[in-house]
Amino acid sequence: MKYLFTLLIAVLGIHSFAQTPALRFDGVNDYVNLGTEVATDVRTIEFWFKLDEDITPALATHISLVVRDNTTSNYDEIVLNFDPSGTAHPGKIRFGVVKTWVDYSDIFTNNDHWNADQWYHIAAVVHPALGMMLFVDGIKQDDTHPNTIPPPALDKITTIGCWGELNNRFFDGTIDDVRFSSEGLYTEDFIPPCPDLPYEGSTIALWHLNEAIGSLAHDSGLTHDADIEGASWGFGPICCTSSENTMPPIFLCRGQSAEVFGDYVTEEGTYIDSLINIGGCDSIVYQEVYVSDDVIDDGISITGDLFTADQAGATYQWMNCNTGEIIPGEINQFYEPTDNEPYAVIITIDGCIDTSACITIQQSGIKVNSLLDFKIYPNPADHLVTISVNNFTSPIQLTIFDLTGKRIYSEQMNTEKLELNTSNFVASIYLVKLLTAKGSMQVFKLYVQH
To answer: Taking a C-beta distance cutoff of 8 angstroms, is the pair 119, 50 a contact?
Structure first.
């Protein structure tokens, strides 16, 4: 997604991640056994997760995140899972507190599409006054429930990555920093806490999953160490502590264009692109574009046989349009030709260059020869530039000169559009001459930057 702010914003940021160990689940038989006590009176469950495959409403089966299942009676359960196709909320995360078969409380996320290789923070809350709420990346979801009663004590295990004692519906992906709390910690939108989460007064258990080796996940409170059943250790950049990067500014003269985030732009402003980085987090990139305030008057006035550039206070270089050669020493605002060759003047102000139309002194007066409608883009060019002529009717001879007048390229345009490879051009300013079979001519500048 791209935006343009007409006011320039100076932003400088450094992109970084919390690179920590994390647990990888294979979706086949991996899970973590948290024991039988941690879900008692829990009011907030939160953690980070990343999927190995996208999840959509076409999901074939339930996928477990955190579950306490009662295989005996289905009473007093708590579930955080993805619901599959065929349910009322396919693809969404369900947070459920089940008292009995007929007395249960469910809420669901807004999202029903989840990207692989992207980290998400989930917080499920049973608040003593406001009821049940779900948060995705710190954003409160629309669905809520008035239930204020947390799960009671139950002699059944709570698991990460599978459906409790039922031991199926396995999770395929990575999970990190799991915290159970006895208080409803969140009621409004918040910034998700990056690893490692703190152990607080309301914390029931906190598994940072930082061990990186072994089959035991240590509880920071030292009372609820968990058994790792098959899940393997890996590393993951979890969240972005700063996600803003500023590219070097681009300076344009009026009429120039530059490629910014895949589009060619001519307007001044700060352009913004939102990307997903390798850690699955948003990376915001800023590109400032400045356009010179100078408007160069490329007109030429004629008095007798004397040509005078209308633009004052600039630097000048007169050239022969037929040969493309710079006329040595002719660097004044005026020029007096001695023949009927077509001439133009190259005008420079504050680094911006424009070239007049080619004019010829003839007995019948002054003839201005120009192509009426052409485009060149991008300009400045890097490796490729496109030249198009909208009123193309017959072949056009294209010739490119450097600023010394040396011809460096020549080609006949047989169609209205020509793509020119500039990879081997030295970064500089060039003069491009278009000459029709009828003698109409246009000379313009091309900037090449690598």
So the answer is: yes
Q: Which residues contact 276 (CB under 8 A, 6 or more apart)?
A: 115, 118, 282, 283
| Class of the CATH-defined domain 19-241 | mainly beta
State how far Cα 137 lies from the chain centre: 18
Per-residue pLDDT band for 144 (boundaries 50, 70, 90) equals very high
Cα 238 from Cα 229, distance rounded (Å): 23
Q: Any residues with CB less than 8 A from the CB of 393 and at least 6 apart, and which?
A: none
> Which CATH entry fits the domain spanning 294-367: 3.90.1150, 2.60.40, 1.10.760, 1.10.390?
2.60.40
Cβ contact 387:374 at 8 Å: yes
In whole angstroms, give the CA distance from residue 363 to residue 192: 80
pLDDT digits (tens, 9 = 90+) for 219-271: 998 899 999 999 999 876 666 544 678 888 988 887 788 889 888 888 999 99
Question: Domain extents for the chain?
Answer: 2-14+249-291, 19-241, 294-367, 370-450
Please classify residue 350 by burial: count the beta carbons closer than 10 Å to its beta carbon, then call 0-12 exposed, 13-18 middle and 19+ buried: exposed
- Write down the CATH number for the domain with range 370-450: 2.60.40.3080
Q: Evaluate the omega torsion of the peptide bond into residue 177 and state whether it is cis, within 30 degrees of 0.
A: no
Residue 237 is predicted with a pLDDT of 64
- pTM of the entire predicted model: 0.54
Tokens of 117: 């290789």
Q: Are strands 232-242 and 44-51 parallel, antiparallel or unpaired?
A: unpaired
Handedness of CA 96, 49, 195, 178 (dihedral sign): positive
